[in-house]
Design brief:
By secondary structure, this protein is α+β, with helices and mostly antiparallel strands. It has helices spanning about 15-25, 55-65, 90-95, 125-150; strands spanning about 25, 35, 45-50, 50-55, 70-75, 85-90.
Length: about 160
C-alpha cells in the first residue's frame, strides 16, 4: 500500500512511517494533529518522509484503504492536519468545491462575487488592472527596443 504514495521514500514501512509522523506532529486544542514538514510555514511545507504529502501518508498508515484516484480531504479545513478522523477520500471535483474562498485577494483587496457562479472571482479588479498595465508597459518597452535595434525612431 505504501508504494501507491507518490514521492514517499522507499525505506519506510507502515510502522516506521506511523512513528515518524507522530514524532513530527503536535496535538492542538481543537483536536487537530498538526505535522511539522519542511520549512517554517504551516500548510505550505507539509511534505515529509521524502517528498510525500503528510496527510496522504497519514491516511494510508492510520486509516488504510487508500485509492490513488481520489483526493484526501481535510474535513477540519486545516491544511497540515493529519488526524485520521479529520481525513477522508473524495473525488477531485468535490474536494475543489469544499475549499473555502477568501474574501480578499493575496494583496488584501476585496474580491467580487461572480454572478454566473456565485463564487468569488479568482483575481480582484485592482490586481487585474495592475497586471494589465504591467503587461502593456512591458510590450511597449519591447517594441521600443526592437525599433531601436533596427535603427527606427521610437515614438
Amino acid at each position: 500500500m505504501l508504494s501507491q504514495i507518490k514521492g514517499l521514500s522507499r525505506h519506510f514501512t507502515e510502522e516506521t512511517l506511523r512513528t515518524y509522523l507522530l514524532d513530527r506532529s503536535v496535538r492542538r486544542e481543537d483536536g487537530c494533529l498538526v505535522v511539522r514538514g519542511y520549512g517554517n510555514q504551516r500548510g505550505v511545507y507539509q511534505k515529509v518522509a521524502g517528498r510525500a504529502w503528510a496527510h496522504i501518508a497519514a491516511f494510508v498508515v492510520f486509516v488504510g484503504d487508500y485509492d490513488p484516484a481520489l483526493d484526501v480531504h481535510h474535513a477540519c479545513g486545516v491544511p497540515d492536519c493529519i488526524e485520521p478522523t479529520h481525513l477522508r477520500q473524495v473525488g477531485h471535483g468535490e474536494n475543489r468545491r469544499n475549499r473555502k474562498q477568501q474574501p480578499q485577494c493575496r494583496n488584501g483587496h476585496d474580491r467580487e462575487i461572480d454572478p454566473r457562479t456565485g463564487r468569488y472571482r479568482k483575481v480582484c479588479r485592482r490586481c487585474n488592472s495592475d497586471a494589465q498595465k504591467r503587461w502593456r508597459d512591458r510590450q511597449a518597452r519591447q517594441v521600443a527596443e526592437a525599433r531601436a535595434s533596427y535603427g527606427r525612431p521610437t515614438d
